C-alpha cells in the first residue's frame, strides 16, 4: 500500500487514567487530529484510554483497535498480526483523515501499543509523520502519591516488567542503591512478592492498583492481596541505610 502524502500521527500519552493528569499538549493534539484511535482489549469494550478521551472530549468519536493487552496472553507476534490486520482494514479511513491521534495510557514510549501501531504502518508502507506527546507514566503517578523523594544524588532506577521473569527482578533488587519499579505484575505477583521479602526489600514497598481511577488503591506490599490486576504497579524504594 503506497500513499502520496504522509499521515500526521500523534502518539498521545494520557497519563494513568485521571483526566486531570492529561497535559495541555495532549488535549491540543486530540483536538487537532481528525481521527482518534484507542486500543482496547475487546472491540465492544471501552478501554481505559478511550474512557479518558470521553471525559475530556465527550463529542468525539473514537475508533477502537482491539489489542490483547498482555503479551503473556497471546505472544508478541499475535499482537503484531492483530494490529497489522487492523491497518489493512482501515488504511483508507486513516488516509482520508490525514491526521490521527493514537492514545495510550501513561507515556507512549514506555511499553505502549503505540510502537506496535507505528511498526504496522511501516510494514504496510503507509507513510506517517509521527509525533509523540508525552504522558505521566503510571510509576511516576504512584511515586508522587507515596514519596517526596524517589531518587536522590547518585541513586538509580530500574523499571522491570514482571513478564521479564524473576531473575531480571532479582538482578534489579541486588542494586540496593536503586528504586525498582515493577510493571505487569499480574502473572507472577506471588513469586515477586516472596522475592522482595526474601531479599529484605519489603520495607516501604508499595503497590498501586487502578491508579487514576475511582477504584484506585495504594497498599503496602505486606498488606497486598494474593493476586493483583493488570493495572498494578509496584515500587521498591532505595535502601538508604544510615540516613
Ligand atoms: C503496557 S504497560 C503501559 C505503561 C504505560 N505506557 C506507562 O507509561 O506507565 C502496562 C502496565 O503499566 C502499569 N500501569 C499502567 N497504567 C496503570 C494504572 N492506571 N494503574 C496501575 N498500573 C498501571 C501496569 O503495571 C500495567 O501492567
From TrEMBL:
It comes from the Bacteria. The keyword Methyltransferase applies. It comes from Ferrimicrobium acidiphilum. InterPro entries: 4pyrrol_Mease, 4pyrrol_Methylase_sf, 4pyrrole_Mease_sub1, 4pyrrole_Mease_sub2, CobI/CbiL. Residues 8-219 form the Tetrapyrrole methylase domain. This is Precorrin-2 C(20)-methyltransferase. Keywords: Cobalamin biosynthesis, Methyltransferase, S-adenosyl-L-methionine, Transferase. The keyword Lyase does not apply. Belongs to the precorrin methyltransferase family. Pathway: Cofactor biosynthesis; adenosylcobalamin biosynthesis.
Amino acid at each position: 500500500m503506497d500513499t502520496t502524502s504522509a499521515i500526521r500521527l500523534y502518539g498521545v500519552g494520557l497519563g494513568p487514567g485521571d483526566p486531570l493528569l492529561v497535559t495541555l499538549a495532549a488535549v491540543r493534539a486530540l483536538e487537532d487530529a481528525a481521527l482518534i484511535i484507542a486500543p482496547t482489549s475487546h472491540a465492544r469494550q471501552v478501554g481505559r484510554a478511550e474512557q479518558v478521551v470521553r471525559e475530556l472530549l465527550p463529542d468525539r468519536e473514537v475508533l477502537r483497535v482491539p489489542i490483547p493487552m498482555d503479551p503473556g496472553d497471546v505472544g508478541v507476534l499475535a499482537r503484531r498480526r492483530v494490529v497489522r490486520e487492523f491497518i489493512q482494514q482501515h488504511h483508507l479511513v486513516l488516509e482520508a483523515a490525514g491526521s490521527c491521534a493514537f492514545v495510550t495510557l501513561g507515556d507512549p514510549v514506555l511499553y505502549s501499543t503505540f510502537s506496535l501501531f507505528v511498526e504496522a504502518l511501516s510494514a504496510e508502507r503507509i507513510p506517517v509523520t509521527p509525533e509523540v506527546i508525552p504522558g505521566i507514566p503510571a510509576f511516576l503517578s504512584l511515586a508522587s502519591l507515596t514519596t517526596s523523594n524517589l531518587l536522590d544524588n547518585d541513586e538509580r532506577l530500574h523499571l522491570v516488567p514482571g513478564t521479564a521473569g524473576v531473575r531480571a527482578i532479582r538482578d534489579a533488587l541486588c542494586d540496593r542503591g536503586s528504586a525498582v519499579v515493577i510493571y505487569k505484575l499480574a502473572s507472577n505477583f506471588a513469586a515477586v512478592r516472596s522475592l522482595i521479602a526474601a531479599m529484605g526489600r519489603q520495607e516501604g514497598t508499595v503497590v498501586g492498583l487502578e491508579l487514576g481511577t475511582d477504584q484506585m488503591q495504594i497498599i503496602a506490599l505486606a498488606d497486598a492481596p494474593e493476586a493483583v490486576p493488570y493495572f498494578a504497579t509496584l515500587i521498591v524504594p532505595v535502601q538508604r541505610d544510615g540516613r
